[in-house]
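A brief tutorial aside. Many learners find it easier to grasp structure tokens once they have seen a single protein encoded end to end. The record that follows does exactly this for pectinesterase. Read the sequence first, then the structure, and try to relate runs of similar tokens to stretches of the chain.
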Amino acid sequence: MAENLVISVSRSIVTLSALVIFGNLLEQSHGQWWFPTAPTTTSPSSNSTNPTNSSTNIPPSASFTTPPVMSPSFSFPINPAGSNTSSTATPSTSIGFPTSPYASSSPPTTPTTSTTLIVMSNSFGFGPLTIYTSVQAAIDAVPENNTGLVTIEILSGTYTEKVSIPSNKPYITLQGTGRTTTIITYNDTANSTNSTFRSATFSVWANNFTARNLTFQNSAPHAVAGETGAQAVALLIGGDMAAFYGCGFLSSQDTICDDAGRHYFRDCYVEGNIDIIWGNGQSLYEYCEVKSTADNSSGCITAQGRASDDETTGFIFVGGSITGTGYNLLGRAYGLYSRVLFIDTYMDNIINPQGWSDWPTTVTMYNSSSRRLLDNSTIRHEYYGEYGNTGPGASLTYRVNWMHNLTEAEAANFSSLTFIDGLSWLASET
């Protein structure tokens, strides 16, 4: 395969005649392809007299008895040297979702510069223009402590490489030509790297990152429930104020490590089988499809790691769908105060009727320092809720009795961009 090339040009000279031959491709990548036929409102269903999920009854069944391999404890030192990103900032103690500890770190109103980098999968000469050999090389060319917007246009192709954006390179946007045509892929696992975090194909530690119309893939072999070291992260997002539009995330176990910070996913496609989306991020997933590839006895959609009532974190899913195969939990507790909500979501007949798990159920199973542990109290701290969901997997008849059957007001509150302080930092296109 021809060597990947990256051409660096400023916004002011993108129209040079040397780039004219790429006009059609650039027009495609600039198009707002991430915005299909999704509804324009983010409010939950309000025309139902009963704020419960609607579907046919599902017969009771055995509880989730084949727990998949656990990901590493959140006490793992996840930030690389020099990173200033942290999930330990002290948030407010307000009820519901308090003001985020990140709320003051908004982007500048007027960026000082705007630069475009162009990535291609085929060789072509451009005379004096700077040539890079990979997507990572383009990111490496961004100045440290950057204050300007940098857009990396990635033309059609499969880019086989591990990519990492350090914390001192904010304001980077990746723009692909489509999630089926622009793919960044690698095949590391927890076994091959001695760490679930290090298995990530694409890692983002910087703030103000955006991605549009491309796929992040970990092509490691399909993980089987109970297999040791098979975790294979496609995306690790540890920076604050990140947004993903029309993107794909493909792997098996631990597809998205939604680790820390406020994040927004819209019209995305996520595929995996065990703890597909996990971590301790504060994230809103709108109109996203989550497809399980689990077998008939296992599967888990989320493993959220909120560790205390003061933390503002949680995963909120609005207006999307859960499809595929398996016998999936909607979520299991990766932290004592784990928080996940599904609102106006279509659920195929692949959901474990109990819905949720407080995994593990006793403090004797693991060391007391683990963030996964339930404490000695009999009071449950997880906050798992559903509202207005549809499809054969959405019946609440056999759900665990400690799940929250949300009211319309609660659903509207959590499904708002306010949950991630989005009105202060998301682009106007949202």
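Self-check: Confidence is low (pLDDT under 50) at residues 1-99, 102-110, 361-373. If you spotted this yourself, you are ready for the next section.
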